[in-house]
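Troubleshooting: if your tokenizer reports a length mismatch, compare your output against this known-good record of 87 residues.
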Amino acid sequence: MPPQPRPVMERLMEKVFVDQNGCWIFTGSKKSGGYGGILHDGKVDYSHRVVYRHAIGDIPQGMLVDHRCSVRACCNPEHLRLVTGKQ
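Known-good structure output:
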């Protein structure tokens, strides 16, 4: 029997560095624009979206997860908020 895959948050947090501003900088693979990307449920997902869903909850249809700190590689849930595309 093959080993069970490790939980995504466990794998993600192994690739996080906390900087002096409290940003959780994802040091793993980057997707377009400098956003962190991690394999989750068979596809690469943005690290900040994975953390948001884990720590805060679902992301409603049409909403985006924004970085209050303006650091694209940050995935600290305290730095994340939901916004519309217009915001």
